[in-house]
Amino acid sequence: MRQAGRSLPEYRALRGSGSILQAIADPALACEATLQPVRRYGVDAAIVFSDIVVPLHAIGFGVDVVPGTGPVVASPVRGPGDLDRIRPLEEDDVAHVAETVRLVAKELAGDGTPLIGLAGAPFTVASYAVEGGPTRTFERVKAMAHSEPALFDALCDRLADLAASFAAVQVRAGASAIQLFDSWAGALDPVEYERFALPPVRKVVAALAELSVPVILYGLNTGELLSAMATSGAHVVGVDWHVPLDEARRRVGDLPVQGNLDPARCCAGVDVALEGTREVLRRAGARAGHVFNLGHGVLPSTDPGVLAEVVAVVHAEGRAGVVAA
């Protein structure tokens, strides 16, 4: 999700300006950015300071994360020849991320706080690779999926290998779990999701099985896709705030869930945030298998004090962990 620390003054002082990729390339800085929200809030897990397009950037595909815009691709995928630009990821390509994970894991080892690594699900990364940047319509990527399915399948297959390799590097360096972000899967209807997005996700999860690492699968606006997401092989399904958590639990069956407080609630003051927090806990019910989290990333305008109150209430009244994501 969006970096938990980005609402913190100490995070803004640390980051300064420029692309997030520059910050991620500095293991000491990325380690500190990862640890800041853990220190501030006392949450029960950390998530590595990174980005889902890091592997594409590392192999020289030509992507940057432009402040205020997001990932921008210089030469988007337009035909089969572009697939050759997506070569296999080598561990040396992301040595800086591996070093960040090692540094964070060492810092967290004393109290046993786990570190969650991350990777981008193939459809979501493909949306940037094909569209050339953020989009509201997903017209190019969906057009390719429908009109050139063989090309799109080949693209997602390569991106699945990239995601699996990136995640494996983090696990070997000390990550305790992987969160797979299919943030834009909600742009697909259920039939499209099962045809175009779910198979490569299953490939990523299967590739990580030999590492015996839990995988969390998250998507935004995926309420109608939750039952399909539960068949991916992932161990936990992340839930945004558009579906009440008790209904989300019904849709995913016996799988654990992560979520799902609306991040905007945390911008409306302590009382509103805590009312929403208690509602999430109530809907989670007494059954085990719920990790409290926001339904999407922390908004930059969020008062850190409000988030501290949310964490305190979950620890005092809930049965769930709290993740710094």
Question: Can you offer a commentary on this structure?
Answer:
The chain is of the alpha/beta class. It has helices at residues 9-15, 20-24, 27-41, 54-58, 95-108, 122-131, 139-147, 149-173, 190-208, 226-229, 245-252, 270-284, 304-317, and strands at residues 46-47, 63-66, 70-73, 115-120, 177-181, 215-218, 236-238, 257-261, 290-294, 321-322. The strands form 2 sheets. The chain has an 8-stranded parallel sheet with strand order 1-4-5-6-7-8-9-10. The longest helix is centred in the middle third of the chain and has 25 residues, at 149-173. The model has no long low-confidence stretch (mean pLDDT 95).
Walk me through the topology.
Blueprint: H1 9-15, H2 20-24, H3 27-41, E1 46-47, H4 54-58, E2 63-66, E3 70-73, H5 95-108, E4 115-120, H6 122-131, H7 139-147, H8 149-173, E5 177-181, H9 190-208, E6 215-218, H10 226-229, E7 236-238, H11 245-252, E8 257-261, H12 270-284, E9 290-294, H13 304-317, E10 321-322
Parallel strand pairs: 1-4, 4-5, 5-6, 6-7, 7-8, 8-9, 9-10
Antiparallel strand pairs: 2-3
Helix pairs in contact: 1-3, 3-5, 5-8, 6-7, 6-8, 7-8, 8-9, 12-13
List unreliable stretches of 5+ residues.
none
Strand content: 5-15%
Largest sheet: 8 strands, parallel
Mean pLDDT, to the nearest integer, reads: 95
Percent range of helical residues: 40-55%
Radius of gyration, in Å, reads 19 Å
- Number of helical regions: 13
Report the order of strands and helices.
HHHEHEEHEHHHEHEHEHEHEHE
Going by helix content, strand content and strand pairing, the class is alpha/beta
Strand order of the largest sheet: 1-4-5-6-7-8-9-10
Alpha carbon gap, first and last residue: 6 Å
* Number of DSSP-assigned strands: 10
Name the overall outline.
Answer: globular
